[in-house]
Design a protein that fits this description.
By secondary structure, the chain is α/β, with parallel strands linked by helices. It has one domain: Alpha/Beta hydrolase fold, catalytic domain (Rossmann fold), CATH 3.40.50.1820. Helix content is 38%, strand content 16%. It has 7 helices and 6 strands. It has helices at residues 19-28, 40-43, 52-69, 81-92, 116-120, 138-144, 173-188, and strands at residues 5-9, 34-36, 74-79, 97-101, 125-130, 152-157. A 6-stranded parallel β-sheet has the order 2-1-3-4-5-6, sandwiched between helices. Helix 3 crosses helix 4 (81-92).
């Protein structure tokens, strides 16, 4: 894929101004222009996420705004909730690829499986998942992937948590470099 714009959605608990989002915005910027955005509840500093239809509408608005300035391919990248909402948005707003950092396959609290949108996807997707992520146990994801009808790749962060952070005893930079290389390889292969 040549010269993609990456529309980058935050997770539920950390807006685009968070250190995690700023760090990954910078890293992803080596692959193409990155357009981070926040959902309405984050802009208004409300504690609870908006209902899914409102989140999807804001996501689609961010894509439309990005397309005004970047006519090439569009990649939706997202952290946790932002990756799940990006998957929903891609069903209504065709894009070229999805990159999910810490996809929340299980709902926090209830543990409900959130696989329906993944089974309906028409867009190639890369999952970037930590082995210690309680919201996406890898055996559940591995059982789901063969049932998906689109290309779906997986990059595993050994020892990574929901934010892909490894043990404090290990350096994070090489892990982040490997993740970025996996994203670059995925996008180049499309």
């Amino acid at each position: 894929m040549k010269d993609p714009v990456i529309v980058f959605a935050p997770g539920a608990g950390a807006p685009s101004r968070s250190d995690w989002m700023k760090g990954w915005t910078h890293r992803l910027g080596t692959l193409g222009p990155v357009v981070p955005f926040d959902y309405r509840y984050q802009i208004e500093r409300r504690p609870r996420p908006d209902p899914l239809p409102a989140l999807v509408a804001r996501h689609r608005q961010a894509v439309a705004e990005a397309r005004l300035h970047h006519p090439g391919p569009v990649v939706l990248a997202g952290k946790s909730m932002g990756s799940r909402v990006g998957c929903h948005a891609s069903l209504e707003e065709p894009v070229d690829a999805l990159v999910c950092f810490g996809y929340p396959l299980r709902a926090a609290g209830s543990g409900q499986l959130r696989d329906e949108v993944l089974l309906r996807l028409r867009t190639p997707i890369l999952f970037v998942q930590g082995t210690r992520d309680p919201l996406c146990p890898l055996p559940l994801l591995e059982a789901l992937r063969p049932r998906m009808t689109v290309r779906n790749d997986l990059h595993v962060v050994d020892g990574g948590d929901h934010s892909l952070r490894v043990s404090k005893k290990l350096p994070q930079a090489p892990v982040d470099d490997d993740v970025l290389a996996a994203v670059a390889s995925f996008l180049a292969s499309l």
